[in-house]
Amino acid sequence: MGRANRSDGDVTKIKILEAAGELIAEKGFAKSSNKEIAQKAEVDLATINYHFGGRDGLHRAVISVAHKYYLDANELAKLAENDIPAEDKLNLFFRTILSKLSGKKNWYAQVFAQELLSPSLQLADFIQTEGFEKFYLIRKIVSQVAGIDENSPKILPCMVSIVTPCMMLVVAGQRLPHPNMFSPIMSMDSTALAEHFTKFCMAGLKATAMGNRHGSN
């Protein structure tokens, strides 16, 4: 009985998250009332408090799910521990993200873009918990690929150079009307686009690493 109850609870929680995500993506958090979310999810209003501790908790959970869709901490941890050549590791990082940009629009991208362009208080809370974990994992991966110490001041600019193009495509692909200047890129095969980003970034990382070594001599 307990297992069945837990399963029912998980299903209800997912229904609420999906309903909230779709409404927030369409209208924004401020204009998406708990009542609307409960009606869309076909659940009792009180279940939002039960599963998420209130409205802010639900919003934070929606942000977490949207962020996880593109950057999953478990996937990042596995990649960080994967003993493969540097270029292959960077290529896999790009393919993991870019493969999720194709297909029809979804609420994950809309919510992700909203938080990038207009950060909420719940995003700040997310960053303090899950966000920092992912930051350190990406820093570790970039350090491995570049051959530069994780604590070097040159690592952060390298991270920004790698992650920013992907984030820009998430925002552009979901918020700009089609066709637009990014449409040819969005229509590219994700494997080919990942290959381009890999070659481009590897050249920059190698140049940075070389400059780092020369600077330390």
Q: Could you say what the CATH topology of the largest domain is called?
A: Tetracycline Repressor, domain 2
Number of DSSP helices?
11
| Alpha-carbon Rg, integer | 20 Å
The biggest sheet amounts to: none
Keywords: DNA-binding, Transcription, Transcription regulation
Protein name: HTH tetR-type domain-containing protein
Domain HTH tetR-type: 10-70
GO molecular function, one term: DNA-binding transcription factor activity
Any descriptors?
HTH_TetR, 11 helices, Tetracycline Repressor, domain 2, Arc Repressor Mutant, subunit A, 217 residues, 2 domains
Please describe what this structure looks like.
77% of the residues lie in helices and 0% in strands. The chain has 2 domains: 52 residues, Orthogonal Bundle (Arc Repressor Mutant, subunit A); 146 residues, Tetracycline Repressor, domain 2 (Orthogonal Bundle), CATH 1.10.357. The protein contains 11 helices and no strands. The protein has 217 residues and is an all-alpha fold. It holds the Pfam family TetR_N. Keywords: DNA-binding, Transcription, Transcription regulation. It comes from Acinetobacter gerneri DSM 14967 = CIP 107464 = MTCC 9824.
